[in-house]
Write a structure and sequence with these properties.
disordered C terminus, 5-stranded antiparallel β-sheet, alpha/beta
Amino acid sequence: MNARAKNADRAKRPMSNKKYLSIWVPVLALVTAIAVVANVALVVAGGWVASQLGSGTYEFTNAEESADWDTDYYSADFDSIDDVDAAAKELVEEISGAGVVLAKNEGAALPLAAGASVTMLGRAAADPVFGGSGSGSVDTNSAVNARQGLENAGFTVNDAVYGAIEAYAAENPRGFIEMDRPDISTYFIGEMPVDGYEAQSASFADYGDAAVVYIGRPGGEGGDLTRDMSDWDDNAEPGQHQLELNKDEKDLVELAKANFDTVVIVVNSSTTIEMGSLQADTGVDAILLAGSPGATGLNAVGRILSGDINPSGRTADLWAADFTADPTFQNFGGYLYDNLSVSYPVSAVETATSNATVTDEAPFVNYAEGIYVGYRYYETAAAEGFLDYDEAVVYPFGYGLSYTDFTWAVTDTQAGAVDGTIAVTVEVTNAGAVAGKDVVELYYTAPYTPGGIEKSEVVLGDFAKTGVIEPGASESVTLELPVEDMASYDHLGEQAYVLEAGDYAISVRTDSHTVAAGTEPITYTVDSDVVYSGENHRSTDLAEVTNQFDDVSAQFSTEPEDGKVLSMSRADFAGTFPTAPTGDQLVASDAVAEGFAAWDYDAAADAFEGDMPTTGASTELSLIDLRGLPKDDPQWDELLDSLSVGDMTDMLLNGAYQTAAIGSIGKPQTTEPDGPAGFSSFINSSINGVAYPSEFLIAQTWDVDLGRAMGQMLGNEAMFKDINGWYAPAANLHRSPFAGRNFEYYSEDPFLSGLMMTSVANGAAEKGVYTTLKHFALNDQETNRVNNGIATWATEQTIRELYLKPFEMAVKNISMEVPYLADDEGTIETTTVGSTAVMSSFNRIGATWAGGSEALMTDVLRGEWGFEGFAISDFNLYPYMNPNQGISAGTDLTLTFQPSKSFGDTSSAKAVTDIRNATHHILFAVANSNAMNGLAPGATVSYTPPTWVYIQIGASILVGLLVVAGALMVTRRVLRHRKAAAQPATPAGDAEPVSAGH
């Protein structure tokens, strides 16, 4: 046989079963494995997938007998979302106009002449800072820019100069904080050097009525502003930080002074900047502190420059001259314990689904300054002769000028008993020629004994903003101060609030430093100490208030002691002024190390003495049946008894921007977007709404009515977008100007913060929106926030009087009306609930994760303040934030997507009890919100899965059929081949001869 014949014979010979199976079995096995893995992944990661592709819809159908009942418990005040947006933009402009502070106005330089021709200078003229990065960012693509704001006010703008700035800004980005990525964050000021203006300098004369110089500073979540510019500015001097003018900015001001008779500075920043040189510069005529003004706020800046708006804003922080001399400066940023290497157990699934960077570090920060933050320090240090106030302070807290003059007269004083209220009525008269608003501020000065309870020289007790007062007209405002609010917390002695005996000075002031002309402080005398302990607690407390944070206070000492933080005291500012931690303070004690240890849910379960709760019982109740009922109504137990552990944990572990539906009890899915400057979502851009001003600027309005109007407007927006909850407002304090998230927070002062937070929340509550007050608590810097949770050390007096105070005010004063169906005839009655949502924070209170602190999340929040709603964690991708620890302490909902986090224990009586309690808290909030709009008792529920689930099912069936078909094909072929191989071979002689060719 020749070669050609051999090849032909080989070609006709069928592949062996062994070889055939070696090809097709792996193929079919691989396809099967991929299908199985894909389906398992979709089940495991269902929460995240649903957040991206939809979670399906629940359709609720009311029973025939209730079909005509009024179940629109809340309704919008507008006909369409377009109407809401238009009204919101008008409100944003109004808020900004009321919040911009006129800080300097030499020679009545402002307002400018109508139709003036101006030259805009500075990067922020073409690249405004509308807010900050992270969850508090907002969509500003359609926002009014700085140039439009001036042109809309009638000014003519130098186009050549503006174009040069715009081109430079496009090519030279300013610094940007990448969330929790200090390794790639940048801190460039990004100002154009003055030589960039040379080509356009000839145009200055044609637009020479004024130079309007914009100075901007950004902020961002997950990072703080830098205190060392050496790596970010070629011209940086030793010690230069991000919040002082750099060389390019100083040169720019000199350029403006040399070429324009009128120089106006607009500070476009939502944190304070060192402004002493500009305030003292006689060549700078006017300064506006404009914050971050939102979608239309720059229109208001233009209208202030033109005189159409008379500025009435007041500073919400004290603006110091030298930030490096502030008592917080040395204890801010990144400090690590030298002797701790921490780790936390995490499942393989959680590791695979989390992008968190995990280290073994244990960071900390010491609030060594105690209560002496912001104006509380500077006013007290000046009173004690420790500093020269005029040198140390540029703008006091509560400071602001106007285009008119006001005079004040105290017309009535009511001094109640120690269980009553002090009321001061002030008549405000417009003594100038322009209509305007004024802010009246009430402060108290408590008696201080050196070595006793620490007390600030002055503390804001109340304030009021007038309406528009015409020239020559007057308006009276009454400011009220409950006497018990002047009590100080004595964590070392009485372990309670104490109103010490002595004389209290009550003063009305134009700012924290200046007693109003024509008024005198009022003396209120307390005859003997009042200790608010035991049953004799303050009238606003639900129960006894006593020490809850001794483990945190234990880190401090009133005398120098190894390993302890020396508490700052006004009795000896020089001897107790804070220093950076060194030596023994960098070594964690055993107690601190224990706080950083992983949560032991087995030990918690073993120590629990309660019974296993009932689960899976039958009930005819649905969630709508419990709307309007007290939280301790027995029907809640019946409803909770009906739920399975799986029903509850699926909701508790999948709380990112929602609470999941539970069909068995007719609980709808809720929607809960970010953020403090208006609704925003990185998941669903359709939720994004009008950009509001930063909270920094909102606080500068000192106007609770505008705060409420903002909440009301967002409530209306929520009605059209099916939004039920809102991750805002935020009321952490401006402890340091370098905190990257100051734009999201109101003020350095807890009282101003608390009133503004409450007003916004109460406005939103009018439309059934629950506000998630955040970040609870002491989350006042971003550095190391998620690096295993920064241990935050403060005395209990500091914790209570400053950092818990705004949350306490909000929890005690938020009120939501709840219309509900009271009988089987459809009768509507109304009850009220208080605050129903709080967000815990990334940091630790002492060494205990805030969300896992029972002292904070249960004893204080629920026990002392009476909170009845639910608490959610901050975004939880991090091993130290243990969900079992959270629900044990009182943090109910985990802000994450399954399967990023899981419960280590779901079967013990302890775990199931915690799961049940957490579920109760969430259901109570949802039942009494606008999520129940349209529902009546007896409603039936049907569920339609999202499209992707149908695709998943269809694809799985198709792949399954193909695999089965493939398996049948392989089986048939193998059997056929085996049968053929078993038949006798054809005799060689019977074969046809093979031709070599033709």
